[in-house]
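Long-time lurker, first post. I've been practising inverse folding by hand and with some scripts of my own, and I keep getting stuck on stretches where the structure tokens seem ambiguous. Below is the full token string for one chain I'm working on. Before anyone asks, I'm not after the true native sequence, just a reasonable design that respects the backbone. If someone could post their per-position residues I'd love to compare against what I wrote down in my notebook.
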């Protein structure tokens, strides 16, 4: 494996589709708020507008910011797909790379040496999401190619080869 970092960008098409879908829910939320006489329906409209409005903002930032989806380098794997922060997984903590399917969708699971150490370094929200990943795929980290400009087989091969070449270095 080469020493230059490999950057896999996020798919602009998928980001734009998700952003427009979120925008539709923002419009629906506003319509619910404006036209409803019920406090509950109005509250749902406000929540819908706020939550999906955040997704619209993040989508616009991703689309115009050119944020990389994934970076593979000599130090490990950086997942830039998180809404709030980049997740760095050092090679020395990775035990293995494997393919998994959840509801017929392919993912690449990254097995780590010490799951408890990963949980202890995560925020409460991230820890909750990682535990859900462990229940679904047996690992706190699962990377889907759905939002990246790479198919799942190529992603698996790339990560597997990188781990084989760089995983034993400390």
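-- Answer (accepted) --
I ran through it position by position. Result:
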């Amino acid at each position: 494996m080469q020493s230059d970092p490999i950057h896999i960008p996020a798919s602009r098409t998928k980001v734009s589709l998700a952003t427009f879908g979120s925008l539709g829910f923002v419009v629906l939320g506003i319509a619910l708020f404006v036209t409803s006489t019920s406090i509950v329906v109005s509250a749902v409209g406000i929540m819908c507008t706020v939550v999906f409005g955040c997704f619209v903002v993040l989508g616009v930032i991703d689309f115009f910011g050119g944020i990389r989806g994934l970076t593979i380098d000599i130090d490990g794997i950086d997942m830039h797909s998180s809404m709030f922060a980049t997740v760095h997984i050092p090679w020395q903590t990775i035990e293995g790379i494997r393919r998994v399917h959840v509801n017929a969708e392919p993912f690449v699971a990254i097995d780590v040496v010490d799951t408890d150490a990963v949980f202890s370094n995560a925020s409460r929200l991230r820890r909750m999401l990682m535990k859900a990943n462990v229940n679904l795929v047996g690992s706190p980290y699962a990377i889907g190619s759905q939002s990246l400009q790479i198919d799942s087989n190529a992603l698996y091969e790339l990560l597997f080869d990188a781990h084989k070449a760089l995983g034993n270095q400390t």
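A couple of notes from the structure itself: The first strand starts at residue 6 and ends at 9. The mean pLDDT is 86. Happy to go over any region you disagree with.
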